[in-house]
Each structure stands twice: as C-alpha cells, then as structure tokens.
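$ ./design --mode recover --in tokens.txt
reading tokens...
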C-alpha cells in the first residue's frame, strides 16, 4: 500500500460542484481504499492504495462521476512526491504569507509556450518557479486580480492542474505521515 494525496479540482467553490467530504470518504472507503482522511472542503484526500497515481486518479474521477454525477479532474501525488514538493519550497524566503503562496499540481509538464505565457502575465511583484509537475507561485497582493493566478487556475495550461495554498500543502504532508 502506498500513502497518496488525491486532489480533486474545482469542487465546493461557491455553489458549484458540491461534494460533502464525509460522503466522499464513504465512497472511497466503500471502493476499498484504506485510511481515508479528508482535509477542509476543497477536495483534499489522503488514503492508502495499491494503484499507481494515474490509475488512482482515474478511479477516483470515475467514482465521483458515478456517485455525484460530476466530471471532476483528479491529480495524485504519493507521500514521497509530496515530501519533495515541501522540501524544495523554492519561494520560501520570499513567500511570507502561506495563504498567498500556491502550489499548482499538474498531471504533466508544461510546454515551453505555456511557460512563456506565464512569464508574460506575472505581475512584477509575483514570483513563480516551475519544477517538474509543480508550479510554485507567490502572489503577494493576493489572487483576486492576478493574471498569473487566473492562468494557473484556468484550463489553458494544456495539462490538468489543481492548486493548493502552502498551508494546505504542508497539512497534506502531515496527514500523509500519519
């Protein structure tokens, strides 16, 4: 069994894509996953599974589709991969507010064209670092008016992406260590 973080994209934002976390836990436990834990209402699950990350993402997306009738993208990281994300922390020296420090988890690498677009939309005070299948982004003025955030949160990256703030990222690693 491998401890894995399962990240559902775009759920429980306002009134759309509503999934109660206790019900999601029940669905996942009923499918045979073990030690299922959820964190806050934004689609963060830590569980034990024998499936690979890609297989687990497909399985969870299928279960969500069947039970909640929603087409939700899912990105998965093992506990070891999550530990590397936290250990790298390339913007830790400048990112002083964990709520404004985001990590976008991708299901593939970004193309050179997308990287160029990200560079062109980042505000002068914003910083971002791409490392493999993660984008670390510091938004000191918040995300509300950030063009960088809008692009990272949108569907124009050419890959599936879902973002979590630094507080959530470190909490997921803590849950994976249990």
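writing sequence...
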């Amino acid at each position: 069994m491998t401890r894995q973080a399962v990240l559902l994209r775009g759920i429980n934002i306002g009134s759309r894509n509503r999934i109660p976390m206790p019900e999601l836990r029940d669905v996942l436990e009923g499918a045979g996953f073990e030690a299922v834990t959820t964190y806050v209402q934004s689609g963060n699950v830590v569980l034990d599974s024998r499936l690979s990350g890609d297989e687990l993402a497909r399985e969870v997306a299928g279960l969500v589709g069947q039970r909640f009738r929603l087409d939700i993208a899912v990105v998965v990281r093992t506990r070891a991969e999550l530990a590397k994300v936290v250990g790298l922390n390339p913007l830790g020296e400048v990112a002083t507010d964990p709520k404004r420090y985001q990590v976008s988890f991708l299901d593939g690498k970004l193309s050179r064209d997308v990287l160029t677009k990200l560079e062109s939309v980042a505000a002068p005070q914003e910083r971002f670092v791409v490392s493999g299948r993660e984008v670390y982004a510091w938004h000191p003025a918040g995300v509300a008016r950030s063009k960088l955030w809008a692009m990272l949160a949108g569907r124009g990256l050419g890959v599936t992406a879902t973002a979590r703030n630094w507080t959530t990222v470190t909490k997921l690693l803590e849950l994976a260590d249990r």
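exit 0
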